[in-house]
Amino acid sequence: MLMKNSKLKVGRNDPCPCGSGLKYKRCCLGKQTQGSENLKDLYLQKYKIRLKGKKDIEGIRRAGRLVLETLDLVEEKITPGTSTDDINTLVHEFTVTNHATPAPLNYRGFPKSVCVSVNEVICHGIPGKRILNEGDIVNLDVTSVLKGYYADASKTFFVGTSGPDAQKIVKVARQCLEVGMTQVRPGRTIGDIGWAIQRLAEGQGCSVVREFVGHGVGFEFHEAPQIPHYGRKGAGIGLVPGMVFTIEPMINLGERDLRILEDKWTAVTADGSLSAQFEQTVLVTEDGFESLTPFD
Ligand code: MF3
Ligand code: CO
Ligand code: CO
Q1: According to the model, what pLDDT value does residue 6 have?
Q2: CA distance readout (Å), 275 to 71, 86, 194, 268
Q3: How confident is the model at residue 8 (pLDDT cuts 50, 70, 90)?
Q4: Considering only 23-37, 82-96, 192-206, 241-255, which range has the smallest mean pLDDT?
Q5: pLDDT digit string, tens, across residues 113-131
Q6: How far is the CA of 183 from the centre of ligand 3 (A)?
Q7: 31 C-alpha to center of ligand 2: Å?
Q8: Ligand 3 centroid vs 5 CA: distance in angstroms?
Q9: In this structure, is the dihedral angle defined by the CA atoms of residues 171, 244, 97 and 117, taken in order, positive or negative?
Q10: pLDDT band at residue 4 using 50, 70 and 90 as cut-offs
Q11: Relative to the CA of 126, which ligand 1 atom is closest?
């Protein structure tokens, strides 16, 4: 496996992964060899991106484990007749029992501990009286704060047995997250992630929501940078080790346009078509990525 990393190396004359447009040797190469502190300062000053160190990564990984346990716990309760508020109660209690805080609760006025988004709801569904019906799809978006560290992940589940449209949009959304994650490595850019996702979604006749994006995460709920799920290959900020961000494509079966309901949170597809989403928190490593919320 000696050659494994060789093709991933950034050449002296290649464009700098930081996205400056300069050659690597004229930009970050020198700074990087003087120690990673310089890259950390550079990314903070230039982009307000806080690169994470070893201790931070371990903290986010721990929070991520709790998020996954929460999703697994709730998955078992997703059956026809369950209300979205029942799900909120489960998530809230499990989170606090595990010495963590549900990040959504009171975040910019969000009234509940988890986002629960059914069928045509794209994201930010507020748990309430809505009852899950056979054939629905439902996204649970869980963000936990454990010892000050945030991890954010979401999955879309079937309620009982779902029809072909539901099967299709859930499959495409899942593949979109995967193809986005496989772009993540030093030398690639934020634009590469969105480009790969958009190509897959639109190639399947689906559309990518543009108003909501992935985001840096770890020290806070939403940090720099923003991670659009559409874009141009090679565009945007270069990925460097220590970046932690979410990829969370929201994919619609119909058009990409959305509407926000009276509650000021719930985003729904304008055409009423189904929407699905998967999200993970990923770390850029020396030679690729590691998911800090690894579900398959
Ligand atoms: N978890 C969502 C995200 O992936 C954000 C939800 S904000 C809330 O970024 F207030 F609705 F919880
Ligand atoms: Co989320
Ligand atoms: Co997120």
Answers
A1: 44
A2: 19, 22, 18, 8
A3: low
A4: 23-37
A5: 999 999 999 999 999 999 9
A6: 18
A7: 34
A8: 30
A9: negative
A10: very low
A11: 11
pTM over 0.70: yes
Neighbours of 278 (CB within 10 A): 24
CB 155 within 8 A of CB 91: no
Say which residues have a Cβ less than 8 Å from residue 248's Cβ, sequence separation at least 6: 152, 154, 177, 212, 214, 227, 229, 277, 278, 279, 280
CB atoms within 10 A of CB 225: 19
Ligand 1, atom nearest to 246 Cα: 4
- Say yes or no: CB of residue 155 within 6 Å of ligand 1: no
110 lines ligand 1 (CB under 6 A): yes
Strand partners, 226: 215
Ligand nearest to the CA of 245: 3
Ligand 1 pocket, 56 CB below 6 A? no
DSSP 185: S
As a whole number, mean pLDDT of residues 62-91 equals 98
Is the Cβ atom of 149 under 6 angstroms away from ligand 1? no
Task: Name the residue at shortest CA distance from atom 2 of ligand 1.
Answer: 141
Consecutive H or E run containing 115: strand 115-118
| Calpha distance 152→69 (Å, rounded) | 12
Average pLDDT of span 166-189: 98
Tell me the ligand closest to 216's alpha carbon: 3
